[in-house]
Amino acid sequence: MSELNKRQDTVIEEFSVFTDWMDKYSYLIDLGKELPPVSEEAKSDQTLIKGCQSKVWLDAELVDGKIKFNADSDAIITKGIIALLVRVMSDLSPEEIMNADLYFIDKIGLHENLSPTRSNGLSSMVKQIKMYALAYHTKLNG
Amino acid sequence: MNFDINKIRNNFPILKETIYNKPLVYFDNAATTQKPQVVLDKLMEVYTKYNANIHRGVHFMSNKATTETENARIIIQQFLNAPNPHEVIFTRGATEGINLVAQSFGEQFVHHGDEIIVSEMEHHSNLVPWQLMAEKRGANLIKWPFTEAGELELPILGKLITSKTRLIAVTHVSNSLGTINPVKEIIELAHQHNVPVLIDGAQAVQHLAVNVQKLDCDFYVFSGHKIYGPTGIGVVYGKEKWLNQMPPYQGGGEMIESVSFEKTTFNQLPYKFEAGTPNYVDTIALAEAIKYVTDLGIENIASYENELLDYGQTKLASIPGLEIVGNARNKASVISFNIKGLHPFDVGMILDKMGIAVRTGTHCTEPVMQHFGISGTVRASFAFYNNKHEIDELYKGLLKVVELFE
Question: pTM higher than 0.90 for the full model?
Answer without folding.
Answer: yes
